Amino acid sequence: MKAHLELILAQAPPGSSGARLSRLGRELLSRLAARRGLDCPLADWSPRGQGAPRHPSLPMPWRACLSHRDGRVVAGLATVPVGIDLEHARPRHGARLAELVDLLPEARVRRAILEAASPLGAFYRAWTLHEALFKLDSLSGRPPGSVLETRLSRLLPGGEVQAWQWQHSGWTLSICSHQRRLCIRSLPRLAIIPETVMG
Hints:
Layout: E1 4-11, H1 18-35, E2 63-69, E3 72-78, E4 82-88, H2 91-95, H3 97-103, H4 107-115, H5 119-139, E5 162-168, E6 171-177, E7 183-187, E8 193-194
Parallel strand pairs: 1-7
Antiparallel strand pairs: 1-3, 2-3, 4-6, 5-6, 5-8
Helix pairs in contact: 4-5
């Protein structure tokens, strides 16, 4: 069976709490399941704060993934483990970019960010990849101790993990999977491209 990832991106009402965003994410997951003919009632999704969402009515090989930031939510169903992360640029991060870049564990990645045409955009591309790798490892049963224990050197072409990214107007979305060929469908349509800059 070909590996698939179906994503949906939604904007929450202004001022939505983290709990409200998590609920919206689970509503989106139920909608994605329904598109597949699967009945996954909202009330039966695992609670917020317990890792990737799980549902007793979601059959294998389907798995759920979810991320939200600043009122936007991205939810996905995939036939293979997938880590996703969504981030939104913050002005305060630009003011302390050098300090944030110093936190990253790989010298090669730190240099690439500082030499990029848009260092803040490059930082978010790297950071979301670390987050997506952390989520992928957690789904694969090998959770690292922290996000910064992941290594971008694991990405193709030299590593074993394929990554895809979308970046627009201060938003960055990263997707990581051990599956090199993943058919990604998104609603609305996003120009998600294979990641090559940091990998």
